[in-house]
Amino acid sequence: MTAAGEIQIELTHRGGQASAARIFSTRPQAATQVLLGKTPEQLLSTVPLLFSLCGNAQSYAALLACRDALGLDAAPEADAARECLLQLETVREHAWRILLDWPGLLGRRPDKATLAALLKLTTRFKPCLFGDGEAFKLDSRLQIDYDLLIGLLAELNQLIDQAIFNGGMRAFQAIADETQLADWLADNSALSAELLHGLYRLDWRAVGRNHIRCLPALDNLSLLAHLQTQELSAFCAAPRWQGQCHESTPLGRQQSRPLIAALQNHYGNGLLARFAAVLREVAEITLGLERFGETPFEPAAAYGGDGIGLAQVPAARGLLVHRLALRNGRVYDYRIVAPTEWNFHPAGVLAQGLTALRAVDADSLRRQAEWLIQSIDPCVPYKLILNET
């Protein structure tokens, strides 16, 4: 078990036919206790030390919650730059899984060299946008070096296009249906194409299909009211919305796009729609960042009043929620609902998807389960145990 905890998954089956799935999380729920009693400024300096994974998303959510609890005005230009950093982080996190974990599903070696180049590149963006590289403070100083930024975005585009799409990123983003997807796969030898080819070859396109729905957009007033009627510790550990489990993944963000909608129409929320949604999000964000500063900025959702701050931020793996309460200028209560708690809920989308697996034997079942877990993407290590009855 790491300091961030792990997820333990037990899958019961008979001859490869799954019958039950149990999910246990050892992720620490009390990490935010160290934030109690701190001033907002102290809190914003501490959050990056607590959360190395998706640190920009965590820091941005904390900043928005603090700012709104204090009744401070929004900063649209600075927030647009922070949104750029948030999207870069999403691309980096997806690429991390694609380059390190997806090759293992295909029996290939991870592409550590490309990932190292990507990590080095993404560290250069923050000082390019903010003075002293401090992006998530109440007094952050916006200072954009546009010439450098344009060059960095061009480097990112080229790296992602070649490493993940083998030069076919723009063509992939333009795909609108399964026929066009088949044409793209036929002409591409990229890792991404090989993985999607594998789903067709194995006839695993609908593997993991289940009835759990994607989390709808939540307005902050409704979410705040919901939180006020829940036992917060229980909700943060195993959230439900209106009494139902939901998933919060890239699939939910991409489900209205023509290709993903077409795949879901045929295969539900199975493997093909999930992997395709991640790839499409990588392409969409990478190409969209070329237009930084040209399109109207839509800020992340936040609500503030009476010392309460609530922020919703779209992190790489799904919706991240931060809620804090201030008393006498210091943190009295702090809560976080992370995407993993939605997606790895004991009765949630992974549990239902695993229970639906039907394989020819235990080895095939394990492989299907590994693909499904990777497609939903835990943010911490996991252990998969198969129990045969």
TrEMBL record:
Pfam families to which the protein is assigned, alphabetical: NiFeSe_Hases (PF00374)
InterPro entries assigned to the protein according to its UniProt record, in alphabetical order: Ni-dep_hyd_lsu, NiFe-Hase_large, NiFe/NiFeSe_hydrgnase_LSU
Superkingdom of this protein's organism: Bacteria
Name of the featured protein: Nickel-dependent hydrogenase large subunit
